[in-house]
Design goal:
- The complex is a heterodimer of chains A (280) and B (269).
- Helix content of chain A is 75%, strand content 1%.
- Chain A has 280 residues and is mostly helical.
- The two termini of chain B are 41 Å apart.
- In chain B, helix 4 packs across helix 7.
- The longest helix of chain B has 33 residues.
- The chains are: A mainly alpha (280), B mainly alpha (269).
């Protein structure tokens, strides 16, 4: 009896805050409801609307743009800096801590910071460009550039985490491999590409998954910087759910969006897993 | 020669990551006419921006709210996480595997699916605009349970048997015998949970409308977005610094633990 008593708080918690919401969210997809007036059964209307909803597809497209820039950039920079930090250098702790600082700070702070860098007229980046004799760039006001700008900002915020993950990954590579390569006279970067890279595939997979889930969770950055604009080019999955649910109180449709985004996240991660496993 | 290149890259990298923070701090303490220059060396130091932020919105109150919410959540995750982790690793009972699989399942469940129904639950319970809405849905999580389960598995059975012979109940075993032997797990779960809830902003934006109940990230977000900051750069930056400072100070002191904890779980809140 005692084991059940001990886990009972979690079971109650799970039933109320996880199991019931999942089932209720599926139920909501067949209804029209704004919480205040009575719920109306709407059949498959939410699903039909979803498949005709250009904004839904736009937000998925935006997320993929984000990921297409964020993931490669993050992996290349993190691997490069981790490889450098992995050598015998002074002040390693300081550099690691500096790269890691944006990871612990709130996304709200990072976003407010980058707002000052990305500003069109007075932003720091454009001031530098102008002083070097170039024209201004519409980091956040050009629909083609807004999402890439956010992806670069997210890379800056998270790369410290991935540096540390790669540093941990490097420790898992058996030392004998490098010793054998040294006997063959392999250069530093040869060893890196021929031995280290293939051996840390699990870490790369972890980075890809964390970034993917992160990309689909993107919210506060566009919420503060652009509100989803210009021309919905930074409308993220969560921002769209948020607007439908808590702006328009379309609980049924917002649930349908949530369900589909969740399905897409899970499928993308499964596909990535297959793809990366094949690479090994 | 090679060393010089390496240090050049590292120093350049460190500047890239630290410079924006320095800029934010110096601009927030610069006198009004120098703020927009984003200079690293203001001619004098003025706390005017901070005074204005704290007089326009109850930022002190938001700090206390954040502290209450994050501490309660962290305590809850530690207590309940170690209870369930203990049951799963040390007690035999029917359905134990099922419970474990359920917990693994909740880890893979994207939050996008539960966001709307959880809000409706808050409305129906009458918890909107209360601390309960900010705290209760976060009191337990899979990560805490799994970390404690892993950690408790490695603790020798003799220790638990000896405590039983002395007449300890299960809860006493968990909190008096296992906790002192599981400090790394407590630190890891504690840091991740506290940081995660300190930085959480989507959920508060959904369930809190009352200014007196807002946590810091929400307060700062609405302050920056809304008319309160009146587009004044100094005020925006001062509010951002106020939000960053508590975690940044904690990070400075416990940097090693922060990095280890977050790296060992791959989660950044």
């Amino acid at each position: 009896m005692i084991p059940y008593l001990i886990i009972s708080p979690y079971i109650i918690f799970f039933l109320i805050f996880i199991a019931f919401p999942v089932l209720f969210s599926i139920f909501l997809t067949f209804n029209k409801w704004n919480i205040i007036s009575p719920m109306q059964f709407s059949g498959f209307k939410n699903y039909i609307r979803l498949f005709q909803d250009a904004l839904f597809f736009k937000s998925i497209y935006n997320t993929f743009i984000f990921l297409a820039i964020n993931i490669p950039l993050q992996i290349v920079i993190a691997l490069f800096l981790a490889e450098i930090l992995n050598q015998k250098i002074k002040f390693r702790g300081f550099f690691r801590a500096a790269f890691f600082l944006p990871v612990v700070v709130s996304g709200v702070v990072v976003t407010i910071l980058w707002q000052q860098l990305y500003g069109f007229d007075t932003g720091l980046l454009n001031r530098i460009l102008v002083s070097l004799g170039f024209g201004r760039i519409g980091w956040l006001i050009d629909p083609k550039l807004a999402m890439p700008s956010i992806a670069i900002m997210a890379t800056w915020k998270n790369v410290g985490l991935y540096i540390v993950l790669f540093l941990v990954g490097f420790q898992t590579v058996p030392k004998q491999y490098y010793e054998a390569a040294d006997l063959e006279g392999a250069s530093h970067w040869q060893k890196f590409f021929k031995i280290t890279m293939p051996m840390i595939n699990p870490t790369i997979f972890l980075v890809v998954i964390l970034s993917t889930v992160g990309g689909f969770s993107l919210f506060i950055e566009p919420y503060i910087l652009t509100g989803g604009g210009p021309l919905n080019s930074t409308l993220s999955a969560v921002l769209y759910i948020y607007k439908e649910g808590f702006f328009y109180y379309h609980m049924g449709y917002a649930s349908t969006l949530g369900l589909f985004f969740a399905l897409i996240i899970v499928s993308v991660v499964v596909i990535q897993k297959k793809f990366i496993e094949k690479e090994v | 020669m090679k060393k010089t290149i390496i240090y050049t890259i590292l120093i350049f990298g460190a500047i890239m990551f630290l410079y924006p923070f320095l800029l934010m701090i110096t601009a927030s303490i610069a006198p009004e006419n120098e703020i927009s220059k984003l200079t690293l060396l203001p001619s004098s130091i003025s706390l005017n921006s901070y005074k204005q932020v704290f007089s326009k919105v109850p930022m002190g109150r938001a700090f206390i709210n954040s502290l209450i919410v994050s501490s309660t959540i962290t305590l809850g995750v530690l207590v309940f996480g170690s209870m369930v982790g203990y049951a799963l690793s040390r007690l035999e009972f029917k359905g134990r595997n099922l419970v474990f699989y359920i917990i693994i399942f909740t880890m893979t469940l994207p939050f996008q699916i539960t966001l709307i129904p959880q809000y409706i639950i808050m409305v129906k319970l009458g918890w909107v605009d209360t601390y309960l809405a900010l705290i209760v849905p976060y009191l337990m999580n899979a990560l805490g349970i799994i970390m404690f389960r892993q950690y408790f598995k490695a603790i020798p059975q003799d220790l638990i048997d000896a405590a039983r012979i002395d007449g300890c109940g299960e809860l006493r075993i968990i909190f008096r015998i296992l906790w002192p032997n599981a400090l790394p797990a407590l630190v890891t779960v504690g840091i991740i949970t506290f940081m995660g809830s300190w930085n959480e902003v989507l959920w508060p934006l959904i369930v809190i409308r009352d200014q007196n109940l807002m946590t810091m990230p929400q307060m700062v977000t609405l302050f920056v977005l809304g008319g309160r900051s009146e587009g004044q750069l100094g005020l925006k930056l001062a509010s951002a610094v106020s939000l960053a400072l508590p975690i940044a100070i904690a990070y400075m002191f416990f940097q090693k633990y922060f990095i280890q904890s977050i790296a060992s779980t791959g989660i950044k809140g």
